[in-house]
Inverse folding.
DNA sequence: GCCGTTTTCGGCCCGACTGTTTTCAGTCG
């Protein structure tokens, strides 16, 4: 999968053209880079099918360059541009306040090629001498160069969302205690529920902006205040997360929320649509001339533009604007549509809580059913079940089902899928279970072909009802195993095996893009938490979020079904 | 360099802020 490489080269071309003050081409290269970066399938496959030019933002010229990168691993045009300004672009651009033009200026005037060069030039006061720059710029460079050296890493949605919710709640509470009304919402990629987040954006309206920014910058876990003003404040928390707070007028809250939620490409698409209708859209509202025609709420803005409301998870410029215009947006699966969790663990294997505790917690969440799927495995660390212990567990579940009203505990197991695709339990052992999750827990380094065959063999064994965390990735830690998704999806449909969206925030596997491809191919999914304690059951929303981002409908997710229907749907081992 | 229910040529998303300037360019989101 060369998507990242291609996008990186195109982005660098954009930067270098911008350094040369070339007009419009940088934006064109960036657009193409974004398309390819967020593409679900490998760019090589698109190339092989001869469909590069069908990608939005990719025309004849860029298609030819992409082809060269795929064939040779590099691009002559890119090398030539690099030779003209041989600098560490990525490093220098990471410095806050420095863009391509300044990089070019610094290189030409004082020969800055790296972050070290830049630091030296700044401390020797060479930068203030450059026409167009000055002492302030020099100071700013010195104070932000450290941060640039430690590149900012994105955090998982599971880390960022609770932090943002806590901040919003605190700000609302403080405003209430001062008797002020105050609306506070998290925006940005967090609101779109992307799997990882760069920083947290919070939007607010209040009659007391200075009080709000005081509360914000004085939060207990603030490490550094970057800026503090009536309309914009910015802090770094002790966990290194950056949080930006913006305060807007009530009449602009909806348009501002839209604007700060993004994505950038969605915003651009929306503005173009506004222009086509003789209007102008900004964070201050939707305007006809000087007259604001909408802005207080998002619904209002979408409606005035003739669009259905677009849920934040869909705002990625993946065709949602056109669909909203044609009223063909799918009814994506609601967060409260899940009727039960089909992968959970208890003390019987490597979980923390008892079956009863898990069942009670699931009942509190309003579930109709919960499947207990402890490891059936020989991996020592997971304290796996064997045939005898599984029978004992089944007896306990039968008793609990008589004892507890209002929720049905399903009998299940999570089996390992061996390197050749054989499940770690045989038919006799699994007899009587309601659900069997099959997962890869070792021998991750196989060829694409081997891994594909392995999973297909597991599905064809007839013992497995669900493939758990299909690619075994861990966000920021472990790359997904390579596999041929077309073949995998075919086998999933053919054998009636369901594919999991594992809702654990460090997994989110299938990813949003892969889940989208799966459903497009006609597969059915299941969203499960893989909870190892009662608290983790609440991670379900992260998995549903991925499904929503993938345009998945309720009917595509089996555990939105009522119990009776689900039981009929699940294949018995 | 891309793209078209106003265009196959002539446009290309919007606004704030900062620091540098005598009216604006660069950066950021």
């Amino acid at each position: 999968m060369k998507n990242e490489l291609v996008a990186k080269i195109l982005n660098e071309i954009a930067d270098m053209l911008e350094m040369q003050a070339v007009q419009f081409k940088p934006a064109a290269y960036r657009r193409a880079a974004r398309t390819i970066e967020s593409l679900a399938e490998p760019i090589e496959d698109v190339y092989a099918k001869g469909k590069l030019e069908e990608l939005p933002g990719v025309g004849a010229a860029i298609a030819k360059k992409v082809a060269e990168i795929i064939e040779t691993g590099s691009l002559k045009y890119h090398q030539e541009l690099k030779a003209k300004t041989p600098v560490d672009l990525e490093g220098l651009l990471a410095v806050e306040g420095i863009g391509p033009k300044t990089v070019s200026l610094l290189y030409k005037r004082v020969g800055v090629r790296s972050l070290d060069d830049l630091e030296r030039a700044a401390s020797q006061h060479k930068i203030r001498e450059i026409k167009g720059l000055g002492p302030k710029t020099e100071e700013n460079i010195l104070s932000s160069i450290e941060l640039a050296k430690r590149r900012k890493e994105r955090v998982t949605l599971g880390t960022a969302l609770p932090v943002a919710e806590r901040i919003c709640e605190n700000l609302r509470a403080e405003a209430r205690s001062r008797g002020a009304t105050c609306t506070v919402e998290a925006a940005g990629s967090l609101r779109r529920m992307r799997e990882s987040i760069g920083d947290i954006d919070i939007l607010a309206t209040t009659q007391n902006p200075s009080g709000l920014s005081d509360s914000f910058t004085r939060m207990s876990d603030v490490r550094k205040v970057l800026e503090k003003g009536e309309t914009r404040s910015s802090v770094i928390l002790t966990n290194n997360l950056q949080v930006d707070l913006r305060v807007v007028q009530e009449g602009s809250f909806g348009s501002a929320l839209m604007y700060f939620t993004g994505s950038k490409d969605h915003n651009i698409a929306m503005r173009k649509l506004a222009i086509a209708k003789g209007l102008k859209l900004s964070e201050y509202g939707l305007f006809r001339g000087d007259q604001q025609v909408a802005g207080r709420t998002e619904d209002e803005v979408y409606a005035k533009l003739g669009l259905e409301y677009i849920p934040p998870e869909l705002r990625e410029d993946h065709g949602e604007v056109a669909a909203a215009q044609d009223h063909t947006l799918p009814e994506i699966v609601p967060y409260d549509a899940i009727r039960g969790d089909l992968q959970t663990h208890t003390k019987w294997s490597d979980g923390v809580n008892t079956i009863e505790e898990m069942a009670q917690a699931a009942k509190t969440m309003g579930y109709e059913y919960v499947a207990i799927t402890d490891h059936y495995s020989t991996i020592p660390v997971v304290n796996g079940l064997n045939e005898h212990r599984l029978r004992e567990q089944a007896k306990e579940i039968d008793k609990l089902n008589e004892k507890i009203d209002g929720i049905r505990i399903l009998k299940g197991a999570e089996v390992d899928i061996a390197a050749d695709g054989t499940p770690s339990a045989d038919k006799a052992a699994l007899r009587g279970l309601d659900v069997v999750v099959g997962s890869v827990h070792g021998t991750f380094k196989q060829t694409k072909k081997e891994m594909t065959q392995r999973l297909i063999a597991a599905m064809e064994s007839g013992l497995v009802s669900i493939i758990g965390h299909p690619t075994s990735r861990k966000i920021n830690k472990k790359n997904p195993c390579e596999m041929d998704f077309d073949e995998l999806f075919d086998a999933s449909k053919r054998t009636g095996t369901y594919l999991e969206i594992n809702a654990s925030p460090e997994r989110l596997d299938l990813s949003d893009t892969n889940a989208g491809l799966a459903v497009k191919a006609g597969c059915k999914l299941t969203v499960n938490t893989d909870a190892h304690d009662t608290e983790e059951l609440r991670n379900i929303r992260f998995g549903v979020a991925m499904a929503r981002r993938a345009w998945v409908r309720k009917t595509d997710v089996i555990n939105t079904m009522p119990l009776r229907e689900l039981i009929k749907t699940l294949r018995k081992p």
User: Anything to note?
Assistant: The longest strand of chain A covers residues 408-416. The radius of gyration of chain A is 27 Å.
